[in-house]
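subagent[fold] <- orchestrator: predict structure for attached chain, return tokens only, no commentary.
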Amino acid sequence: MFTQTKIIMAILFMLGTSWMPAGAAASSKVGFLVVAPDRGFLGNQEVRSLVDEFKKSYPATLGLVGRDYTGVEGEYAAYLTRAAQELRQDGVTEIVAIPLFLSEADPLLKRVTPLMTAYSGGLPVRWAPAMAHDYLIGQIVLDRAEALSQHPESEHLIVVATGALDSASEKAIKKDAEKLVGYVARYKHFREAEVVVYYDREAENAEQKNQEIKVYLMSQMAKQGRTLLVPAFIGPKFDHSMSLTSWLNDQFKQTHVVYKPEELLPHPNALLWLKKTANRETPPTAGEIGVVIMPHGSTQPWNDAVGKTIHPLMAKYPIEMAYGMGDPRIIQDAVSRLEQREIRRIVFVRMYALDHQMKPLTDYILGLSEQAPSDGHGGGHDHSATAPLQVRTAALFSTFGGYEQNPDIAQVLHKRIAELSKDPTNETVLLLAHGEATDEGNDKWLAVIGKNIDRLRQEPHCAKLKTIKALTVREDWPKEREKAVAGLRATIEEASKHGRVLVIANRLYGSGPYKKMLQGLTYEMNEKGLVDPILTRWLENGMARMTAELIPSKSEQSAYANP
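subagent[fold] -> orchestrator:
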């Protein structure tokens, strides 16, 4: 159940006001200290440009640390202390340190992490995860690989990370970099793909270790097929020639390796990653929550009918539509439009009959799941071997779906029956639905309709009906469809011998292929579907519930500060 404060907040959000009850304002202000490696003149320009963009939307500052970092007494302490002071002057009461490092195992980051509170002037500090844990960074490496690749099935991808000081740090950094290679492998099926980790020049026997890596890479490049070298680091860049990417180019310029000196920065996803990290670490306000609604979509009359159920909510919520069966590009466009409206949290509505329908697919597209649907469509019809694209966004998502599991849908079905029924004692009603591919999924759908039938039987008119029965046609799967349609036709033929047969299109709008499937039979059909003000209320109630859950109470806001 909602707390009273949450319900008030949700109602105020629906009314479009920014007023909040006394005492409900956040008691703390989070600021973000981006901790980045000192890369030299050109590299630091890139980092500062990135952080300056980040600062336009969030209280943030930059603290540089270099390989000469020696702790609280060293020269880099001044940069970190000044960064924390800037946040304090901005009214920040707690600091989230964001490491602009690929891996928490980076030895430099490991040295600075436990000492951050020494620079914060008493402000509490917590650390956000490093870059390798977010799929947005995997997308950067994917982009770099796609720019080089021609025929991945005959190519060898080698992702290069850096920073190791010993075998333990090498293994840990490699493990994180392999997450990025795993991400690339969802989309590009290379003959081989692996990670190598170069040692920092300050490491013991660094020259020997790195020479061994070079020898190994040369042996791989000698194999048949192209070898692609992709940097996955944020390395030194004093100028265009004095840089880690330039050094790497010099190492292999006489070989057949395919390489471009493009590391993790600059790239648009780096800013998205910073913003997404900030969104995760701070509670949203009502005005920062928007909605994407995804109905199936069809012809314009279908879309218009469904749109009428959504239109009353447009003035209450920032809503964008994403008609389709989990089309990543359509979803991306809808999400991007909301972000342009300064939305940071998005309620994603799967406007499908059951709550599991399209969920595996859209959860993956939205980054809520790392598991891509095995059929490429999470219950749809596209059996692609490549994972669906994931949205490139800083927004965070909550989702719901399953309008037929709303008990009030029985009231809509009652209306549709009443619009046709004349003599209930002489009538058989068939509630006819789309159906699913698997027997398990199809049985679940029939069970949901069965519960609505139980509710219908409580209505005096429907209680008099000869029969109310749930059926599906499993229309997108030929083998299952043939059997289901044959059973449906037999049911109608037999029932029509003993009275009227009323077929109710138990779908969002229209009757789809039902008329063609039932050609030659005697029956009457109501094809209005389930579009109704009751469906609007289902949407509104779900949005209000999700909004109330996203806006934290005072105690929950405190938990952000003390996780």
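orchestrator: received. Logging for downstream: Residues 167-185 form the longest helix (19 residues). DSSP finds 19 helices and 16 strands in the chain.
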